[in-house]
Please model this.
Amino acid sequence: MSIHFQNLCFTYFEDRKDVLSGLNAVFDRETVTVLTGASGCGKSTLLYLAAGVYPHGAGVLRQGSVSVEGQDPGSLPPPERCRLVGMMFQNPELQFCMDTVKNELVFCLENICADPAEMEGRIDEALAFCGISHLTDRTLASLSGGERQKAMLACLTALDPQWLLLDEPFANIDDASARAIAARLKTLHKTRGTGILAVDHRLEIWLDVADEVRVMDGGALLPEVMAVSQLDPAKLEALGVIVPGRSYRPQLPPPQTGAPVLALEDLSVVHQGTPILNHVSAQFLRGRIYAIVGQSGCGKSTLFGALSGLYPYTGHAWLEGRELRRLRKKGLGKAGFVTQNPQDQFVGGTVRQEILASLRQDPKAMETSEAILRNIRLWRYRDISPYLLSQGQQRRLGVAALMAYDCHILVCDEPTYAQDRHNTLAVMDALCRQARERNAALVFSTHDRQLARDYADEIWELKEGTLHAYAESGG
Model:
């Protein structure tokens, strides 16, 4: 009972270097395994191969084989494959087909020809498992990133496959919800015998759940198997893994005292008849760094969406003394935004063109763009489409494009989503340094409380629809 990779060589482009080279690995169904390692080392690719998505969907399998419970997943028709393996993408939005949460679950069960008499019970059980029974009739488009991850996980548990393959399953979910779901996954493993192979940078969520941790490096699986009770923090940190409880140790210039750049006054947002934000009031000063934390679905992305013009609001948002919703394009240019899904904002045909679009006023744009892409480790991808990058790489590109633009306030929704320790440091150091040097305000959301403590001058918690000064005991 296992997933078996034998002498695997895989590449995304025929004329490019292999992403996986001569990889051999066996993952036992009786063991909950977390696969970690630096961004771009091939973790997600391994899951796509195990799920049968690759090489049919993309890439070239130069040699080797993949078997799940003795079968080639890529050769199975979809209904049989869904019973064998269920995979959750880094961005579950790419997997949804229907309009509401319940309709998505019905669609999934219909595709495996489930007994109609059993559907309602399976749907209710899956929603309760993920703690989202209250979202049954919500549209998928209206959900937060964390709620979408929970919805996709509900779909997978309803399908009840022999294996669950989870790619950064808690990236947009708060710690308390993530730990609760991880504990339920452990129960699923014990009671149903479901195999679990998860790719994750957040090892702390798995400490009481996983049996072992495996590390990938440069397209290869390291031979060492780490028991979760005997992790080597120094080795993991050197390999780019985010180690629970370890400070990021930023070295930033001290904050400057600046004038208010953004002031919120009784800002409220109602979405589909449901109040999301209630009379939010806050002030953000130039030269200072602010972190916003809070449970999944509490409204962090809605707040950023209101500021960027995505959602209508009542109350006021003053950008340097002028009402935000009344500003024309030129005035709005003083604020820069990176959303949870940066691919929604891409305008360039290639990675380099995406950076160049923000450097139109720079006489040395070509040189500057090269420096930026080398700094975020994307120079090698400069001539390919941004949509061919991984989720983590797209996140770094979105942040870099924002930093290339001269704005007075930077607003970033989960800027370190799906990043390893090295890239987390690179992104946050660059963002915070830019804010300090330009005397701009930086506002970012995160579920990583250590990151918030290490980088922010002030931490706000979005709770019950409004912002509160963050207290550690209540976080």
User: Anything to note?
Assistant: The chain has a mean pLDDT of 88. The CA atoms of residues 181 and 203 lie 14 Å apart. The longest strand covers residues 260-271.
